[in-house]
Amino acid sequence: VTQKDRDMLAEKAHPAFRLMMRLTEATGMRATDVRLLRVQQIHDGIIDLAQSKTGNDQQWEITPAVQAIWDEAGRLPGRTRSMYVLPTRRGTPYTESGFQSMRRRALAAAGLKDLQFRDVRKAAVNEAKKLGRNAQEFAGHSDPRTTEKHYLNEPVVVKPIR
Hints:
A hairpin with a 6-residue loop joins β2 (46-50) and β3. The chain has helices spanning 3-12, 15-27, 31-35, 64-73, 96-110, 117-130, 135-139, 144-150; strands spanning 42-43, 46-50, 57-61. It is built from eight helices and three strands. Helix content is 49%, strand content 7%. The protein is mainly alpha-helical.
């Protein structure tokens, strides 16, 4: 999925969904981890996360881009009375169903066909690798084969012999 597609989707998305996308672009977090991220997990300049799927521990540095996401998240309706970083108006975390509804509405408004949230994570992992980061660590995988098989999809540049 291209950055242009992600930007179009973010432009048309509900503010909470847009921030979830931007957080995943910056950190590579899974949708569930972003949806359920609690304020208590943010301290001392880091995001402290035990991944929901694997249980692997990660600590994400709060960069200026991530700080801008937090600042904007702090202005969301429901944020002042919630322990969740990206809550609903009632202060509860978004359900998987509510999350998918926001994604479908944003896709329709942006005129895009089928972009899954996991595509945002996949793009982030590929970008991390391009920037010289360890893609396996960035994704939080225990086995590098998982990262290679399911996430790294950039074509290999091959130089002709003649």
